[in-house]
Design goal:
By secondary structure, this protein is an alpha/beta fold. It has 2 domains: 186 residues, Medium-chain alcohol dehydrogenases, catalytic domain (Quinone Oxidoreductase, Chain A, domain 1), CATH 3.90.180.10; 127 residues, Rossmann fold. The chain contains 13 helices and 18 strands. The radius of gyration is 21 Å and the shape is globular.
């Protein structure tokens, strides 16, 4: 039986070169089991700003542009060829589309979908959410509960990155006396910390966040807080069973190596921060302490389901994420609006998540 595809025209705001976003009309195929989502709101990832400002390697920009930015977002089902989603439903967009879904075949690997080398990722060489009609497979959408408002739901994707990171050490996190530390006082670190506190239930008596900027660190009210500049890592008597590194960039090396000093023997270290450069690590103590290091990247649909469920059930979790909301709303009606929004985001460098609201009419 031949599959019938419907054509969908999408107003697409593509980054054609650094600092230049243009609107193009792209005709997309809507196949059986796929859904048209009209984006309502998106938050901006640091990766998006690196593409926009041209801070990625030249070969990466040449390979991936032009493309629509943004991969953290929610929308309304506009048209559906899926039995699972109806027109008008609110959905969180899962940006990772595994290869077997793209090809219409069955999954054959035991790896989580976010490690599928044949998959694609929105706003990474594949058009992202900055378009009027996003065509997504039903496997890469998750329904949003009524209790979760749009401005909280839009932070689902970043929260799932923390949730997936924690899944590597889930068994240890479930132990009653586990001690956990996290390095990183940015939004990614905050949302990962919120997962540890509200989904895994690890309170301040067993959970410490290390940061470098006091105003940011003070936001982590649900954890014990320590400034890295003031903490004596060399002589500390404290030991942690699990440590998360969520700093990235040139801070990764310091965070990892300071963490190695205070992690217990046989401990588990989860690496979340992305760096464009090689990161020196104290492998001598990794070996001597018998540590396990986990690399973690992005997330998959199962992570979205878990986070969305937790957000729907836990008001305190929603209140914690609300701290990340910006003071002012930014509305996007055109490619030039999006271009100016990115310039402002890069210029202001605020701790809060930058959130964009789309108006397509």
């Amino acid at each position: 039986m031949q599959e019938i595809a419907t054509k969908v025209n999408s107003r697409t705001f593509q980054l054609v070169q650094p600092l230049d976003i243009e609107e193009v009309n792209v005709e997309r195929n809507l196949k059986e089991g796929w859904v048209v989502v009209q984006p309502v709101m998106a938050s901006v990832c640091h990766a998006d700003t690196r593409y926009f400002s041209g801070q990625r390697r030249k070969e990466a920009l040449a390979k991936k542009l032009p493309m629509a930015l943004l991969h953290e977002g929610i929308g309304i089902v506009k048209k559906s060829l899926s039995n699972k989603f109806k027109v008008g439903e609110r959905v969180a967009v899962v940006p990772n589309i595994p290869g077997y879904v793209l090809n219409g075949t069955k999954k054959t690997s035991n790896l989580p979908d976010n490690y599928d080398k044949n998959g694609v990722f929105l706003s990474s060489g594949y058009d992202g959410i900055a378009q009027s009609d996003l065509v997504q497979p039903e496997q890469c959408l998750v329904r949003i509960p009524e209790a979760v408002p749009d401005e909280i739901a839009v932070m689902t994707e970043v929260s799932t990155v923390g949730y997936h990171a924690a899944s590597h050490v889930q068994g240890t996190l479930m132990k009653p006396n586990v001690r956990v530390a996290l390095f990183g006082d940015g939004p990614v670190g905050y949302m990962a910390a919120a997962v540890i506190r509200y989904i895994y239930g690890i309170d301040a008596s067993r959970f410490t966040v290390f940061g470098a900027i006091k105003d940011r660190l003070d936001k982590f009210t649900f954890a014990r807080r320590e400034m890295v500049q003031n903490y004596d890592f060399e002589h500390s008597d404290e030991e942690y069973d699990v440590i998360f590194e969520a700093t990235g960039g040139h801070f990764s090396s310091n965070a990892i190596n300071e963490g190695i000093k205070i992690i217990s023997r046989g401990g588990e270290f989860v690496l979340m921060g992305v760096s464009e450069e090689l990161v020196p690590i104290d492998t001598r103590n990794v070996l001597e302490k018998g540590l396990t290091l986990y690399g973690t990247s992005r997330s998959a649909t199962e992570d979205f389901k878990a986070v969305v469920k937790a957000l729907g059930e836990d008001e305190k979790y929603r209140e914690a994420l609300a701290k990340l909301l910006p003071e002012n709303e930014t509305f996007i009606q055109s490619a030039s609006d999006l271009q100016e929004a990115f310039k402002k985001i890069i210029e202001e460098k605020k701790w809060n998540k930058a959130v964009l609201k789309f108006e397509w009419n």
